[in-house]
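Hi team,

Filling in the usual template for the complex we talked about on Friday. All components are listed, including any nucleic acid strands or ligand strings, so the model treats them as one assembly.

SUBMITTER: L.P.
PURPOSE: interface mapping
COMPONENTS: three
RESIDUES: 1207
SEQUENCES:
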Amino acid sequence: MAVLNMVEAIRSGLADEMARDERIMLLGQDIGVNGGVFRATDGLQERFGEERVVDMPLAEAVIVGSAVGMACSGLVPIPELQFLGFGSQAFHQIEGQVARMRFRSQGRVPMPIVIRAPFGGNVRTPELHSDAHEAKYAGAAGLKVVMPATARDAKGMLLEAIRDPDPVLFCEPLRGYRLIRDEVPEYEYTVPLGTARTAREGDDVVVVAWSAAVVVAERAAAQAAEEGISARVLDLRSLVPLDTEALREAAAACGRALVVHEATLTSGFGAEVVATIQEEAFWSLEAPIGRIAAPDTPYPIASVEGLYVPSVERVLAGIRQVVGAAP
Amino acid sequence: MAVGDRVREHQELVEVQTDKAVVVIPCPAAGVIAELCAPTGHRLAVGEVLVVIEPDGDGAGAPAPATATEPLQSAPVPAAPVTAPRAAGRPLAAPATRRRARELGVDLAIVAASGPQGRILREDVERAAAASAPAGAAPPADPAAPGAAVAPPSAPSVPARPTAAPSRPGDVVRLRGVRRAIAQTLTRAWHEIPHIIDYREVDAGRLIEARDALRRRATERGQEELARALTPTPLIAAAAVRALADHPYVNASIDMEREEIALHRQVHLGVATATPDGLMVPVVADADRRSVGELALEIAALARAARERRLEPGQLRGATFTVNNFGGLGVWLGTPIIQPPQVANLGIGAIRDRVVPVGGEPRVRPVCALSVSGDHRVLDGDTLGAFVSRVVTLLEEPLQIFKDLS
Amino acid sequence: MVVGELAESADLLVLGGGPGGYVAAIRAAQLGRRVTLVDEAGPEGLGGVCLQVGCIPSKALIELAATAERVRGMGDMGLEVEGVRVSLERFQAWRERLCLGLAGSVGRLLSAGNVTVVHGRARFNRPDRVAVRTAEGQARFFEFEQAIVATGSRPVELPQLPFDGERVLDSTGALALAEVPSSMAVVGAGYIGLELGTAFAKLGTRVTVVEALERVLPSVDASLTAPVVRRLRARGVDLRLASTAERLEGGQLVVRDGDGEHSVAAERVVVAVGRVPNTDDLGLDAAGVPVGPDGLVPVGDDLRATGRVAAIGDVVAGPALAHKASAEGVVAAEALSGRPAAFDPAAIPAVIFTDPEIGTAGLSEAEARADGIDARSATFPLAASGRAATLGATAGFTRLVVDAAVDRVVGLHVVGPHASELVAGATLAIELMASPEDLAATIHPHPTMSESVHEAAELLLGHPIHAAGAAAPR
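RESULT (copied from the run log):
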């Protein structure tokens, strides 16, 4: 197995799938000649040609809208939004067309589209570039929302998403592109959507997180262990479909739960997780479920982003509070 | 000792006061004292020569008197051989030994060296590590033998204050020696014992009058030491000891495993004392059989010994009841922590002039605040309160103390 | 396009690939750490000042100059040679291959330890992050768990004689000369200045040494410098003490002393007046690492400056020597990896490749006394050494210093041929607390310079064999 960072794993996944399936096309800003601003598509145009790796204008609705037409016509397009925060420009296409085309056509019109979108903060990008908008898309019925936290999962879930007949929003943590490195198998493998992963074992409290927040949760759990608190970390990996069974099992086993996400608190996906846990495991709960999220303000300037994005310290404080430990 | 004196091996040669204790150094060899290198009271660096002893020759064949200028050939007695001689501020240890000491968390400065002339060997470090591991752990209580109870925070067998250097912010200070013993004992005390605290204010006017009278009498008789020792503490302690006779549950210990409360026959009085190493509680044995004067002298002697690090471990064990005068620190009401397995601790606050009603009129009187902690498992508010009331009565009518004790 | 700072992760980040940094990196890798090493000079410049422009090339030049001189001077012994010439041009080509080869070896050692080497200039911009401007002009960001600052030092520049790479050179420039200059003024009589001055004097350059202090080599005991000064003067080196270098005037350097200004010939001027730590442009404040007014980073004996950043080598207090940096590198790597480690040597040896060489380990007698030690010493003159006689170099001595109270060796000070090779043994004796009896009872091989250590020990004990009539220990 090779140790890859997340952007290398994604590039490798794109290349493997494009070699396997000639219908796959990439569309996006700066992805061809330039190779992608984050190098995710570096060398792919050279290898697969300008007809399959297409540079698009700075117009998200056009990028996604073109992909809709291609998908309807039997291709497998993978459009890239340079930042998820700018996806609002394409929201009509995503929510109004991509998400519901199969439902609307009773399955007759295919939509095997995968929209790739980097997102998230703590990399000194300004607002919009840093925003975590996953919950908006999780509410678009018909669209799957995938948020891997490891390089291995990024590649395995990308392959699974490409092969899935449903449309998928594939969210990639900007901060993790180079920071997250782990072992990625060299053989072909996929990771099923809708299955959570236990990132760390523990039985006093379960910390539920996804994408880059998983790394923060793992560090906080490691520090909590030094204080004698055994914190489990559950990496949801995909929000839609949601692994309710894993949430039920973890909450029942630990009796206490904390949700961590980078998005703002109000209407964040954490609310959905809390609701699911209380539906599935209410009688196992020993304490109110905690939430650690960004404050309800737009993303701030870089010099204070460390106070905005959930930090190890804040998650640790949340763990202590949920287990009733003295601060 | 003087030059020319004949000495035997192991004979007590000299008393050396180190940072930790006063140590009597036995003579390392038989012979004749050829040179005393320092007068009494002189300060010597560790490693300096104290005395040169010539082998006891039979007269004519005796070697020429050795001088300090040729110490390489003589048999010098290094100062304070119980600790490693220091050269250039460093304990003498080879690199691998130093590493082993770091691994074992042993401070080389306090390792007893067995190598030549104070060289610390690897085995010395390992021995020190083994010795310090159980240090400070209190021996189990033996409730069947009242009075021979648990050690309060006591000096561990290896004296282990890290260094004399003051700690700076940012330093991490290892929990060792007296500090560790205090931490362990008080953690246990605070975790295990449900404290109730009885706070009282005592009119100390007559107490001070009695103290002054006793002092005058001692001075008139030329008992200067006694006069100095007669502070309020021994008087209050004497009142408490007297009151304990009528309140056996306060002079007691509890053993939760055996589910027993032992009521002690004698009063062994612990006296909390601040020392440079931390809080120590030396014990006046059989305090109930001593006069106020004896108590005063004994408490003063123990406090001095504690401050000078001369206490024997035996002087720190076996208290059945403790008094703690924190008034000298300016404290009015304190929170005495009970040393398990004791069940009470009498705290003495400052004596201050206060306005109090006397016969319906405001008067300025010297008032002493007492805070007496009791173990609620043994003592209820009324039993503890009855004891404290008796102490207060004795302090306000101090003649009763002497009636029974002197 | 704003794309932010996409940091890469580095478990342990080492800044600097000199003898401190690369040793720390390899030790940390041995302890299972994932190590990234950032060095400004890149793979071909690994090894730092020591390997590239310091110890290694200077010793090579000194060896060349000394050999040339010795060959010329062995007529008495029967060596007949004609036309010994030195080509500095060929020396430079050889030196380049030497340094490249050694840098390659360091690179291979690092890659064998899976250490990632990044070629660029690093700067902290957060407590847990450095920005690296790479040799290709790109910015990379590394988020580290822990870091070791091993960025070394650089020569001090004199305002009146700024380095220009042509006339006014630092030691690096002097070592890179491809022609032997006719005259050279060396400013600074520390070990770098004297080593370079001696080497060029041996190559035929007219050398003037200008020193502001009253004596040469202020870092070592004055008695050790006398044989060196005698040899310099005998060689025709113009030694100007208590003098300052003022300015260049045509082909001359103007020097001021108590009598006024003088001009000395100076085709080249080499300024070697000290070194400053490379801590001023590292962004250390962003990492919360304090820097003293002297540019040094204060550290504890585990070499940590903060919880996660350690500093070693020339950027921390102590002599700016490669072996000290390497020893600290090992300690820092171990301490940051959770091992109990501390830098607490009994002695840091130092060697100076003057003619004759100087080697020191531990305390001089005066230093020992100042430390409150009952110090005794014995000095064995090399005139009584057989090996020194065969080398034709009997100037100098070996001096042993002991702590009489506990009967142990605390210092060895040698001035004489191969002095640099004698101090390692003495450092071992100091660390292992050997007594003078231990040294006297240890057989030293004949005929070597190491016998002088043995003789000094015998002398100290009052029964020397090869120093008849020598006084009892003083």
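MY TAKE: The interface with chain C takes residues 45, 47-49, 71-72, 76, 78, 85, 87-90, 92-95, 98-99, 102-103, 105, 115-119 of chain B (CB under 8 Å). The longest strand of chain B covers residues 344-358.

Thanks, L.
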